[in-house]
Amino acid sequence: MYVPPKHAIDEEAAWAVVREAGAGMLVVVAPDGLQSVFVPVIVSDDHTRILTHVAKANSWWRALHDGDEVLGLFLVASAYVSPSNYPSRFESPGVVPTWNYVAAEVRGRVTVHDDPEWLQRQVRALTDQFEAGRSPEWCVDDAPSEYVDRQVMAIVGIEIEVMAIQGKAKLSQNRPDVDHDSVRDNFAQGSPAERNVAARMTDDT
Fold first, then answer.
1. What's the pLDDT tens digit per position in 83-113?
2. Which of 30, 14, 185 lies closest to 203 in space, CA to CA?
3. Which of 46, 96, 105, 131 has a CB 3.0–4.6 Å from the CB of 137, allowing a cystine?
4. Does the pTM exceed 0.90?
């Protein structure tokens, strides 16, 4: 991922992007080309591992060998930026459209798991993570155990050993203050996606 210094975020902020996204696109090189899958993820407390699972029927994992490289892509904000948001265009009309976004990219090496106990732990941890704070909270044990066992037999686990993470927040930092603030203020009145971007365009971006 190309990250100019103005748009770089530190490692802690990049992991915050992954956690906030909750799910992302995992991309691998298969014999017939690139393949991707969109999955919810768990990040270990020490940021060394990412855990998830995919349907056993999904061909994405079948070409994988333990140790193969995987690329994870996570996005939490995204919106088109029109030059009409730039007051400076009246004095300097040389402007073009662009896109504002906040994203993270994780590179790692994959291990595939088919052990039912490992899969049970992963499914329970994933469920607990995303059910936390809900009222009521659903848990795996709310479903019949025989049903859960059948579902677990239909998935494979994916463990990613993290090699590197990189984050990017492209939020009009390269524009004059008057343009940056205009984009933020217009987005604040716009679509949900635009309001999401506006909320991240703080004065210190």
1. 999 999 999 899 999 999 999 999 999 999 9
2. 185
3. 131
4. yes
